């Protein structure tokens, strides 16, 4: 475990050249790999320590181009965690209050990492559904087992947010197998509208209960880092919640041109899409501010792979918003320029950043070309409806936004999966 900590610590040294950083961290990682012997532990009884080691390995592999290893390592950690009962209240861990708290934190990390990686790659989540009750969401009340005078710590709020994220992730998974289709299972791409409102109210309550991040403080504490991560995750979770509605909002505009006044559903969809864009902008603002914030050891407060991941999510939604330029053009343009500038500043950290940035620029230009005003007589001629429609849909699919695919669906995107090293 110590070697994995050294491997991750080496990756945090952003001032070092990428080759030197990767070489040194890989040395520590291989030591940990040979000591853990993953080919053996899969056949032995699991333990909490084994799950912790595999989670640290997953964190390290997120800094590398080894997506398959990342996926399989995380899957192994999750399966072992379930086998030793971490998914059950109390689990099979019989120890002190501290040990039980660590076990709960480890399980929450398993679920969170699996949900985020699965959602980002458009794959079904392997984590069991996290027990979740809406009773704790009403009126901003505290979760069960907490009295009204108890101040919920950042860690406890993180756990509650993980449950919400898990619920959203499960509710947006489609029954894509032929057996499910043969049984006529209903296709569900998002929670019911009232449920969405309840979740959004709780996310708002969590966000409003947090103190501001002290970006101007000369001394950054560990609690400040956790606070910033929690704010990032709240915006990320709200994007997860509203993304299918944003997709529907853009796709319905392509499919039919409605006449007359918009109805209530149109207003709700537009408001949801606007909130999705607003939270993408929040991600961008928080990441931009964090880049200049260092802790007492001189390291940037948020690891670079987290920053790139959240920038990646934000830029996807900024580009998608431009599919409706009549609504979002004036709102998104400045944010897009800022996002490009911030992501460009990370190019020295990984070759994948430059490749991803170039792909995003191509998508942005493609959307702009579709909507730009005609400049020649030839362009004045009305384009064929199908061609225009397919051009927009092509961009939409490339972004992973499809009405019938609520996740990102990046499995076939060579420009991303062959090079990404932060998801």
Question: Your description of this structure?
Answer:
- InterPro entries: Fungal_SecMet_Regulators, XnlR_reg_dom.
- One of its GO terms (molecular function) is zinc ion binding.
- The chain is an all-alpha fold and 423 residues long.
- The chain folds into two domains: 1-128, no CATH class; 208-255 and 263-372 and 382-423.
- It has 17 helices and no strands.
- α1 (2-11) packs antiparallel against α2, α4 (48-61) runs parallel beside α6 and α5 (67-83) runs antiparallel to α6.
- Mean pLDDT is 74; it is low at 133-151, 175-183, 377-390 and 403-423.
Low-confidence stretches: 133-151, 175-183, 377-390, 403-423
Give the C-alpha Rg: 22 Å
Largest sheet: none
- For the record, give the distance between the C-alpha atoms at the N and C termini, rounded to a whole number: 22 Å
Q: What class, by secondary structure content?
A: mainly alpha
Total of domains: 2
Tally of individual helices: 17
Into which percent range does the helicity of residues fall? Answer: 55-70%
Shape: globular
> H/E order of the elements?
HHHHHHHHHHHHHHHHH
**Average residue pLDDT:** 74
Number of strands: 0
What portion of residues belong to β-strands?
A: under 5%
What's a quick, concise take on this entry?
The chain has helices spanning 2-11, 18-36, 38-41, 48-61, 67-83, 97-121, 154-171, 178-182, 193-208, 222-255, 264-290, 304-321, 325-344, 351-371, 377-380, 385-398, 414-417. The protein has 423 residues and is mainly alpha-helical. It has two domains: 1-128, no CATH class; 208-255 and 263-372 and 382-423.
